[in-house]
Write a structure and sequence with these properties.
Blueprint: E1 3-14, E2 23-34, E3 38-42, H1 49-56, E4 64-69, E5 83-86, H2 98-108, H3 113-126, H4 142-154, E6 160-164, H5 172-187, E7 191-195, H6 199-205, E8 208-213, E9 216-222, H7 223-227, H8 241-253, H9 268-276
Helix pairs in contact: 2-3
Length: 285
């Protein structure tokens, strides 16, 4: 399988300040991400997630080791359209309008003006920013800036997306919209590395996870393997209370423990999804 990201003994060390010694932001790391996969980068603040993304985006020179992105060094100009990095934080150039900002990004990655304008217009509408497209970025809320930043990352229809907290600061509707757009890019063959503290969203979107703590890898692998256990559960549907009681009695007779019998409950985010899709209304039965 073709590789999207490859790293061998990749390290980043920042020089110490005053009497403090050097800070190891990223301990020697080996990493292989196949194309078409979504890797979630997890860990507390300061664990090395953003450092790793910045190295792969070609914005930070590693102290040691090497990395390739889509078969090229991260700093290669050949990657300017095929790799996109969405950083966390405020957008630059607050005097530009949203539309002007996307035009600037399109020019920077070498898109023809017509293509850039068409894709930019479609993305701002899709992300609910159409009414604000001609307003200066300085007046955008945190969530609006986050959505426009994603639009900029998607503008070149990249093969690899490097995302730093793509849904932080967004309401549940905005988060679901972002996840939908990312799923569409994956369906089109793109790969994603996503740093996030939103664990539910990582579970929904990512195939694999890499857990960093203090710059060191603490866990990695497919979600199914990391989250799976030895126990098995029986899920039933369509039985009345008498049938459930009979199944419970049979389970006890075979040495099983019946922990509880309860109605299934959807997570809270499912309610927001239904509301956003118009399937339910506040106060509706």
């Amino acid at each position: 399988m073709a590789t999207a990201v490859s790293a061998q003994q990749l390290t980043v060390t920042y020089p110490g300040r005053r009497r403090r010694g050097p800070v190891v932001a990223l301990a020697p790391l080996d990493l292989e991400v196949p194309r078409g996969r979504v890797l979630g980068l997890l860990g507390p603040n300061g664990s090395g997630k953003t450092t790793l993304l910045r190295v792969l985006a070609g914005l930070l020179e590693p102290t040691g080791g090497s990395a390739t992105v889509l078969g090229e060094p991260p700093t290669s100009k050949a990657l300017r359209r095929t790799v996109a990095f969405q950083p966390e934080g405020q957008l630059p150039m607050p005097v530009l309008s949203g539309r002007e900002f996307l035009a600037f990004v399109g020019a920077a990655i070498g898109l023809p003006n017509t293509t850039s304008d068409e894709r930019g217009a479609a993305l701002v509408e899709r992300l609910g920013l159409g009414a604000a497209a001609d307003r200066p970025l300085g007046g955008y809320s945190t969530g609006m800036q986050k959505r426009l930043n994603l639009a900029a990352a998607l503008l070149g229809e990249p093969e690899l997306l490097l995302l730093d907290e793509p849904t932080s600061g967004l309401d549940p509707f905005g988060s679901e919209l972002v996840l939908t757009l990312l799923r569409e890019r994956v369906a089109a063959g793109a790969s994603i590395l996503m740093a996030s503290h939103q664990l539910l969203e990582v579970e929904e979107l990512c195939d694999d996870v890499l857990v960093l703590v203090g710059g060191q890898v603490r866990a990695r692998g497919p979600l199914g393997e990391l989250l799976g256990g030895d126990e098995q559960a029986l899920v039933l549907r369509g039985l009345d209370q008498g049938g459930l009681d009979a199944v419970a009695d049979a389970a006890r007779a075979r040495g099983g423990d019946v922990l509880r019998i309860e109605r299934p409950r959807q997570p809270l985010h499912a309610l927001f999804r239904r509301l956003g899709a118009g399937e339910a209304r506040p106060g509706a039965p």
